[in-house]
Structures are given as C-alpha cells and as structure tokens.
Amino acid sequence: MTRPDTKVLDSWAMVAWVCDESGATAVHALLELGEAGRVRLLMSVLNVGETFYTLAKRRNLGIAEQFLRYLAFLPVEVCVPDRAGVMAAARIKAVKAVAYGDSFAIALAQAEDASVVTGDDEIRQCGLVPVDWVGR
C-alpha cells in the first residue's frame, strides 16, 4: 500500500475553515480525504496555538476553545517540534520574510516531505516548500 500524500495545515487554512472564509471548502475537502485515509494531515502545535489566538481575537474565546475540542476529533496529527525542529524553524525565520509561526509550518513540511496548505502569501512567496493554495 502506498503512503498517502502528506500536507501541513497552517493557521491561515484552519482559521478560514472555522470561520467559513475563502478557502474553507478546500480545507473541508482535505479533512474529508484525511478521514478517508487518502491524505495525511499534520499541524505544528505552534500553528494550533496561532489558530487559537487568532480565533479568540477575531471572534471570541468560546470559538477558539471550540476549535480545540473539534481538533481532537479531526484527522490531523498535531506535531510538537523537538529542539532540532525549533532550530530549523528559527533558521527559516532568520533568512526568509515569514512570520515565526509560519516558519514552523514550513519546517514541518520540509521534515515530512510535505506541502503546506495555506492562503498566506508569505509562505507561497518564500519558495521553500510546495504550497497547496487555498487563498483568494
């Protein structure tokens, strides 16, 4: 059996999905593929935190807490970076114009030979990983 494609979800994609913004349909389709075992979905715990605070600021704390409860049932592996993963992200941030949280999604994608699912143009423009664009 072949290994399914691996994709890293960044906070942009998850916020779009939760808030039913542009890209939500594409993210929902990926979650269904993940549920069917046809794609492996990963997310850095730092991007989980970024999603949480973004939802709390844009909407409210209740929606952010609800996201965390739903995440436990989604076909998404939450990855905690070790020291090497943190330093890989720091090196990316040091040389590319990306947000620190984005550098963790990029580093995880590099480590897992994956693409990043995003609508964040900084990630797309950095050129370090393949991007599955779900933005406008």
CATH third-tier fold name: Rossmann fold
Q: How many domains is the backbone divided into? A: 1
* Count of alpha and pi helical runs: 7
The CATH superfamily is identified as 5'-nuclease
Distance, first to last CA = 35 Å
Series of H and E elements? EHHEHHEHHEHE
Helix content: 55-70%
Main sheet specs:
5 strands, parallel
Topology:
Elements: E1 5-9, H1 11-18, H2 24-35, E2 39-44, H3 45-58, H4 61-71, E3 76-79, H5 83-95, H6 100-112, E4 115-118, H7 121-126, E5 131-133
Helix pairs in contact: 1-2, 1-3, 3-4, 5-6
Which features does this protein show?
single chain, 136 residues, alpha/beta, Rossmann fold, five-stranded parallel β-sheet, 7 helices
Describe this structure in words.
- This protein has 136 residues and is α/β, with parallel strands linked by helices.
- The chain has one domain: Rossmann fold, CATH 3.40.50.1010.
- The chain has helices at residues 11-18, 24-35, 45-58, 61-71, 83-95, 100-112, 121-126, and strands at 5-9, 39-44, 76-79, 115-118, 131-133.
- α1 (11-18) crosses α3 and α5 (83-95) packs across α6 (100-112).
State the gist of this model.
This protein is an alpha/beta fold and 136 residues long.
